[in-house]
Amino acid sequence: MNGQIWELLAAGAALAAGLAWFLHWVNRRSRPPEAEMDVMEGHDFEYFCADLLREAGFEEVEVTRGSGDYGADILCERDGVTYAVQCKCYESVVGVHAVQEVYAGKDFYGRMVAAVMTNRSFTDPARTCARRLNVLLWDRAHVEKMMEEAGRQQGKR
Predict the structure, then answer these.
(1) Which of 3, 92, 94, 99: CA 20 to 30 A from 21?
(2) Residues 133, 138, 139, 142: is their CA dihedral positive or negative?
């Protein structure tokens, strides 16, 4: 009889462990996955954005050199309008400095329009500065819309 009790206890423990593993697995799968763009390094994010711009109909899309880019990470053109784009892959909101960088980059590269493209959103001062300087702000919602229009899914890493 004692042997049967120990067998039942062992079976119960195994069942409990299996149930705990199953609940952990279900919990992990029910959480939204971390977006691929949120875990990219800066230069990888620049190439990711360049690909999105190409898929959105921009032409002559060029990623500038990594450091010393004079405030523009991507140069491109669409419908005869030339763009300088600053890319920011951040863990928090993007501040006014990015707007100032791309505004300078626009002039340095002789472009017509400046834009900041990010996986996040922008601070109020960044929005105010962008309005005054006529800099486009392409936040996460805009990037996700571009991805949707290009038929892309947020990938998991």
Answers:
(1) 3
(2) positive
pTM: 0.74
pLDDT at 14 over 50: yes
Query: Pick from 94, 134, 93, 91: which is nearest to 115 by CA?
Result: 134
The alpha carbon dihedral of 112, 47, 104, 128 has a sign of: positive
Amino acid letter at 67?
S
User: Which helix or strand (DSSP H or E) is residue 124 part of?
Assistant: helix 124-133
- For the chain, strand residue ranges (E) read 59-63, 74-78, 81-88, 113-118, 135-138
Q: In what order do the strands lie in the sheet with 74-78?
A: 59-63, 74-78, 81-88, 113-118, 135-138
- Which residues lie across from 85 on neighbouring strands? 74, 115
